[in-house]
Each structure stands twice: as structure tokens, then as C-alpha cells.
Amino acid sequence: MATSGDVVDLELGTPKGREAGFRHPAVVVTAQRILDAGPAVVHVVPLTSTIRSFHSEIVVEPDLANGLDASSAAQCQHIRVISPSRITAVRGNVGVEVLAQLRETIAVILDLP
Asked: In the chain, how many domains are there?
């Protein structure tokens, strides 16, 4: 099972509209205590190599720890729930600072305190 902050490769299937689809990297943002319980679904934020500077996106620079090949935008506006069976590989982990930025941005999008 993946851990919070993991950069994973997903098989998302055929997209509809502007959603992410096909084979796609993403960051797992589900709380670790939930992941430890073996959930039926997990929350992920898709990554794209197209950097648009949207306020709802966090740029993640590639490094040895996260396993990314290029600068990527974490598309917090596209958070989605997936079956863990869609995860095909784990590349690395973004670390606690980037994970905190992602969760803070998601909280703003969802108008959470």
C-alpha cells in the first residue's frame, strides 16, 4: 500500500472533459492513519508536466526522493478518489513540506477551516 505523499503511477482510463486520464502520475494525499487501515479507496492529486501557474496547482521539482523526471504541477483542483488497484508503481515521495502545501491548497478549494 502506498503512503501519504507517495508519487505513484496510475491507470485512470479514458478521461471525460478536462479530467486526467490514461497512465498518469499522481501524489497520494489520503491521511496515513486511513492508509494504515487498508482503505477501499485513496485520494490522489494528478501531476502534469504542463506548468500553468494556477493558484490551485503546486509545482513539484524533480529530485531523487520523489522520482519525477521533470518539473510537474500537482493539480489540486483535480483531486480524485481511486481504487488502490489503479496504482501501478510507486516512484518516490514528495516529502512533508510539499504534502502540507497540497493539503492546504485542497482545504482552500473545498473551503475547509
From this structure: 1
Q: What is the C-alpha to C-alpha distance for residues 103 and 96, in angstroms, rounded to an integer?
A: 10
User: Measured at the alpha carbon of residue 9, what is the angle toward residues 6 and 11, in degrees to the nearest 5?
Assistant: 135
The answer for residues whose C-beta is within 8 angstroms of residue 109's C-beta and 6 or more apart is: 56, 76, 77, 79
Is the four-CA dihedral 9, 22, 11, 5 of positive or negative sign?
positive
pTM of the model: 0.92
User: pLDDT tens-digit profile of 17-38?
Assistant: 877 667 889 999 999 999 999 9
**pLDDT of 59:** 97
Domain-located, residue 25:
yes
- Asked whether residue 1 is assigned to any structural domain, the reply reads no
CA distance 11 to 2: 15
> Residue 16's domain is classified under what CATH number?
2.30.30.110
* Residue 98 domain boundaries: 6-109
pLDDT of residue 15: 75
Residues 47, 12, 24, CA angle at the centre, nearest 5°? 30
